[in-house]
Design goal:
Elements (H helix, E strand, L loop, with lengths): L21 E4 L12 H8 L3 H12 L4 H4 L8 H14 L4 E5 L7 H13 L3 E5 L3 H7 L2 E6 L2 E6 L2 H6 L5 E11 L3 E3 L4 E3 L4 E4 L8 H5 L3 E13 L1
Helix pairs in contact: 2-4
Length: 228
């Protein structure tokens, strides 16, 4: 990532499109000025409609107006992350380089960030331990092993668990929808009382609903054929 940003030299061949306008999200949120409030930081970095979009993202990421009017130095790591992401997603950029963007975020904020990234019109490169984030927003996975970078078209779950052209049978578990919710990735709505059959390879897609108690596993298993 640092080589891509031009911060360190690289060996081999590294090419960045001339039209790429890059924004960088660092784990330490080094680009934020601690003495400013979130609103002041937005006003300093952005102009015009971008300012309004960034403020909208703050609320979308569950940062209250009260917190947005406090100095950034008094915000938690998760709150600072939301400020930085709000600015980046509202800027005139087409390539975002994101280093652990969901660290320190609570479940609701993580889900909001996942939806925002899924709707983002540009390209992003994410380094993260958040496997659910990878499954939610990434269409390619890169593995760097023994000095060789290998690209895989598909989600993280597909990369780890599937083999091209082969059928895989999994033991799917039955879950009951405790309270209604919408999967914003697939746009599907689930109603209270509905039963959902979920295979292990699909579970990451429902992790948010499981963590918030909207889904509950009920006894019994059924076999489900998953074609990959």
């Amino acid at each position: 990532m640092k080589a891509l940003l031009g911060e360190i030299p690289s060996r081999g061949e590294l090419w960045v499109a001339p039209g790429a306008s890059i924004g960088y999200f660092a784990q330490g949120h080094d680009d934020l000025e601690p003495h400013l409030t979130a609103f002041e930081q937005i006003d300093k970095k952005l102009v015009g409609d971008a300012r309004a979009r960034a403020r909208s993202y703050l609320y979308r990421f569950y940062l209250t107006r009260k917190d947005a009017e406090r100095p950034i130095s008094t915000l938690s790591g998760g709150e600072r992350a939301r400020v930085m992401l709000s600015i980046l997603l509202s800027s005139d950029l087409n390539f975002l380089v994101l280093d652990e963007p969901t660290n320190y975020l609570d479940i609701m904020a993580k889900h909001a960030v996942e939806v925002a990234l899924a709707d983002y019109g540009g390209t992003f490169l994410i380094v993260t331990h958040d496997r659910y984030l990878l499954d939610s927003v990434c269409s390619k996975v890169a593995e760097l092993r023994n000095g060789v970078l290998t690209m895989f078209n598909g989600s993280y779950t597909q990369y780890k668990g599937t083999r091209a052209g082969r059928d895989m049978v999994e033991e799917a578990e039955i879950y009951k929808v405790v309270s209604s919710f919408t999967d914003w990735t697939s746009r599907r709505k689930y109603s209270a009382g509905e039963r959902v059959l979920i295979a292990p390879s699909e579970k990451a897609n429902f992790q948010w609903a499981l963590d918030t108690g909207k889904l509950r596993r009920i006894p019994g298993k059924e076999r489900k054929l998953v074609r990959t």
